[in-house]
Amino acid sequence: MAMLHIVNKSPFERNAFESCLNHASAGDAILMIEDAAVGAITKTAFAAKVEAALQDKSVYVLSGDLAARGLSEDRIISGVETVDYAGFVDLTVNNDTTQSWL
Amino acid sequence: MATKKFMFVNRKAPYGTIYALESLEVVLISAAFDQEVSLAFIDDGVYQITKGQDTTGIGQKNFSKAYQALGDYDINKLYVEKESLEERGLTLDDLMELTWEDEDDDYAEKPSIHLVDRAAMSGLMADQEVVISF
């Protein structure tokens, strides 16, 4: 039973993202949207935690939210995939359940 | 009207919440009252002034260009905290080039952004008469 975890808070401002990573299971998918998109880029104080999650989970970021914050896709963590809104819908359909970490 | 030293402290990324836009609006209003205004960008506030913001994918208005106008309102002290940039994998090169024209120096274009470390930022805050945090 794979779950899609949706995070929308910056990992630098709230602990929702970190709590999500601490509770997600192997095989789950994690999607960064809104302010959480800043967690997708390399060389941040949070990058190591996302890299660790990539060992056994798939990690996605909503491309429009990255672009809105001036972050180009060439600086996202290797292994993190970008999705658009259609890809967001696919993720919700392809996972059994979703959980929003507000 | 007496002039006071105002600092607007920005701590949130743009677009995810309304804080960044509200702060910018209050800053622009404050310019009309001839106060001594400075802006601080700390924590996620540094994302407010990244270059190349493109909001077409999220259906929100891109207000980042409005920061370019601050210089015309004599708001030219934008302090950016070095540690906040570093924690987020960012450098000064990732920020917009924000400038102002110095009419006392033959309208020379000068940078509005000043990179300061956390200790210096703390000192700047201590210097203020009014601090408004967003």
List keywords for this structure.
heterodimer; A: 102 residues; alpha/beta; Hypothetical Protein Ychn, Chain: A; 5-stranded parallel sheet; 4 helices; 5 strands; B: 134 residues; two-stranded antiparallel ribbon; 21% helix
Walk me through the structure.
The complex is a heterodimer of chains A (102) and B (134). Chain A has 102 residues and is an alpha/beta fold. Chain A has a single domain (3-97), classed as Hypothetical Protein Ychn, Chain: A, CATH 3.40.1260.10. Chain A is built from four helices and five strands, in the order βαβαβαβαβ. A five-stranded parallel sheet of chain A has the order 4-3-2-1-5. In chain A, helix 1 links the parallel strand 1 (3-7) and strand 2. The model of chain A has no long low-confidence stretch (mean pLDDT 97). Chain B is an alpha/beta fold and 134 residues long. Chain B has a single domain, classed as DsrEFH-like (Hypothetical Protein Ychn, Chain: A), CATH 3.40.1260.10. Chain B has three helices and seven strands. Chain B has helices spanning 19-31, 82-87, 118-126, and strands at 5-10, 36-41, 78-81, 99-102, 108-111, 113-116, 130-133. Chain B has a five-stranded parallel sheet. In chain B, helix 1 links the parallel strand 1 (5-10) and strand 2 (36-41). The longest helix of chain B is centred in the N-terminal third of the chain and has 13 residues, at 19-31. The mean pLDDT of chain B is 96.
